[in-house]
Amino acid sequence: MTQLKSLLTKSIKQKLTVKQDSFFKKISDQGIALTYDDVRLTTGYSAVLPDSINIESKFSKNVGLKIPIASAAMDTVTEAEMAIEIAKLGGIGVIHKNFSPQEQAAQVAKVKYHLNGLIEKPICFDENVSIGEILAYRKEKEFSFHSFLITDKNYRLVGILTKNDFDFCEDFSLKAKQVMTKSVITGNPSIGLREAYRVMKESKKKAIPLVDKDGKVAGLYTFSDVKRILSGDSKSFNVDKNGRLRVAAAVGVYDDAFERVESLVAEKIDLVIIDTAHGDSKGVMETLKVLKKRYEVDVVVGNISEPESAERLCRAGADGLKIGQGPGSICTTRIIAGIGKPQVSAIYECAKVASKFGVPVCADGGLKYSGDIPIAIGAGAHSVMMGNMLAGTKESPGEFRFHQGVQYKVYRGMGSLGAMERYKGSRERYNQGKNDLVPEGMEGMVPYKGPLKEVICQYIGGLRRGMGYVGAENIEDLRAIAQFVRITEAGKAESHPHDIVITREAPNYRERV
Ligand code: IMP
After folding, report:
1. Of 88, 250, 381, 445, which residue is 20 to 30 A from 163 by alpha carbon distance?
2. Which residues line the pocket of ligand 1, CB cutoff 6 A?
């Protein structure tokens, strides 16, 4: 019975996929490309309840997502604070590249150290280092934790500095060996998460260092992190196999990429994105090939909007593609350079090719409302990347501004004049030198929206509702069965609230600024 049911489902899915293909074929045969406001999804028979829908997906071949949302690699959107919060909500943040390589790696480390299952390379200090020096290092790196392992000159564990040791220390010139706790319960390197938890609970120790047969440090478990992972509070977190939050980072081409990736890999980055305005280019292709040869890390490449570009990059070894040339809210590329393709058609055409290679695609930019998420995924995306829709949250690095009594946050394009004048990373994204800058983006501000958690709750709520209307139980279903209808200007006007003076704002709808 179950087998019959799944057979029927498969054949229905195939029929619907063919229908979806014929919709887009008819459009492209007329030389037309569509974007979000041009289409809506049609409703279908549904036996699914929005809350039981599975929205797990993939960002790249080997990096999963609990929710299909990534935060953009922009200096007003994603730094460590945003990356930590979005990973806790199930998505992934991409740390921008207007940081120096060292600063960017430090941001990644902050995310990876925020929540640890097994810390493979815990921070260790020599027993002769002073408490003052350790505290200064902690401050410089902005670490939130207080447990540091202390070793002798042969790197053998001799003690541990805990929060209590720091709190009760009144003379910061004392050496670590004079302040540290010497009675440490250790484990051997093969000890698992559960066993570590049991030992810490029984011994009432907040940390358990792992040491090898020579007494050298081989890892560390801390109680709060292990408890959080095992207690299920973290079920929604997007974590790697060691229980650490997932994070990505943007890199340029050639030496910029090689230098950055070396230090990013050392911090256990989950994936890197070769982030350029024109992904289908010689520099990107050559950089991709070198990175794939040198490292085991997933490499996502962008941005593109043509199926031929998708094919070339998949063949060159890309583990994921980022689609979008010109849809961004701060983007002027299509106006300045006259190129680009409306986003829904670009997603569909690129995803169609990428799926033959098993390469996930991310729809980057141009989303305005939660309803655009099921549309992007219905057109073939595995995830969406947002700048504007996340820039107004508490966790974004953009500055606050007040304008006519309303609170805003600064949001600007990475190719805006301000960003390009100041940062090499921005100029390289748009392949430009220091002089005669030709901006491809704007600087502005977006309304303040409050904590990311509340904002994402609405976006995911919209996605689930959309999937419920379509009858899709999971992301793959939605990609296969979504049917599109093209709408007119009148249809678009009818879709928004009309003929009413809005007296109360809804958390998921704003009139466009
Ligand atoms: P948004 O979500 O519509 O605001 O679009 C965000 C996306 O726009 C980013 O993820 C980038 O791919 C892209 N982007 C960022 N800065 C610029 C720019 O200055 N010009 C063009 N595109 C940009």
Report:
1. 88
2. 72, 74, 303, 324, 328-331, 333, 364-367, 385-389, 413-416, 440-441
pLDDT in tens, 441-467: 999 999 999 999 999 999 999 999 999
Q: Which residues contact 297 (CB under 8 A, 6 or more apart)?
A: 261, 264, 265, 269, 270, 271, 272, 291
Ligand 1 centroid to Cα of residue 395, in Å, is 18
What are the structural domains, with CATH classification, of the chain? 2-114+238-495 (3.20.20.70), 124-231 (3.10.580.10)
Q: Find the angle CA(195)-CA(201)-CA(205) to the nearest 5 degrees.
A: 105
The gap from C-alpha 410 to its chain's centroid, in whole angstroms, comes to 20
Give the pLDDT confidence score for residue 58 in this predicted structure.
98
Helical (H) or strand (E) element with 320: strand 320-323
Q: 122 near 149, Cβ under 8 Å?
A: yes
Residues 262-294 have pLDDT tens digits of 999 999 999 999 999 999 999 999 999 999 999
| E-only strand ranges, 361-481 | 361-364, 383-386, 400-403, 406-412, 443-447
Cis peptide before 98 (omega within 30 of 0): no
Token pair for 384: 């969406």
